[in-house]
Amino acid sequence: MSFPIKGEHLHKKYKNQIVLNDVSLTLQEGEIYGLIGPSGAGKTTLVRILLGLEKADSGKIELFEQRPTLNAFRSLGYMAQSDALYSELSAYQNLSFFASIQGLHGKAKKARILEVAKAVELDKDLKKSVAQFSGGMKRRLSLAAALIHQPRLYLLDEPTVGLDPLIRKKLWTLFHYLKEKGATIIVTTHVMDEVAQCSRVGLLSEGKIIAEGAPKALMQRYHVSSVEDIFIAMEKEGAKK
Ligand SMILES: Nc1ncnc2c1ncn2[C@@H]1O[C@H](COP(=O)(O)OP(=O)(O)OP(=O)(O)O)[C@@H](O)[C@H]1O
């Protein structure tokens, strides 16, 4: 078993606010790990630290069982919570920019842009300027940009916010497809039916991962019949500690 990401004893404070208090997290190859928790719990902060975009105050990170290098970070696929797109450019130009950064050129680049645009159903909108895109289209374009270099590891921060149920379902089909092909995905979400589709779930609350496991196993452990109830039971347990 290989571990695409390992974070050990991570601590993070903003001024006097403790956001991460000794968080350890190990992702297994080929799993979809759902990171859940109340708003402001530190999910984005944890993802950004794992990605190398933010520095932990202390703790250790390994990427593919090695100390992370800049190149290793480049090989990750990241979809931020707010879309990092160039609105004055077309969707095609945006994808072309991200593809070039990743070293794709010429015919291979063009083919890959069409492939990822199809995967998120934006292939007919590639010529449009991003300024004319809806919120959901921007989310999908951000995802396409994260897919462009076929990374082995994806960090997706609330990838389906603002998307209609049909597109949401299609994106999850895509996530499962990526997983089947061997990719590992860490995804933050507040949507319970998405949580149910994760291989494992971790609940971050008050700076700690207070529960972790497969959704079914967690339902058994907390004697509840829905993922939503796990969330509530885990939170209650966390509050008692
Ligand atoms: N750069 C920063 N400077 C100061 N405080 C910050 C910074 N980034 C995050 N925080 C604070 O850290 C806490 C955790 O934020 P974070 O965005 O990681 O939470 P989250 O779990 O992702 O929330 P949500 O579910 O609402 O997206 C919040 O209280 C936030 O205000």
UniProtKB/TrEMBL annotation:
Gene3D superfamilies xrefs: P-loop containing nucleotide triphosphate hydrolases (3.40.50.300)
Claim: Transcription is one of the keywords in the record: no
Ranges of residues in domain ABC transporter: 5-231
Keywords: ATP-binding, Nucleotide-binding
UniProt GO molecular function: ATP binding; ATP hydrolysis activity
Cross-referenced CDD domains: ABC_DR_subfamily_A
Pfam families: ABC_tran
Protein name: ABC transporter ATP-binding protein
Organism: Sporolactobacillus inulinus CASD
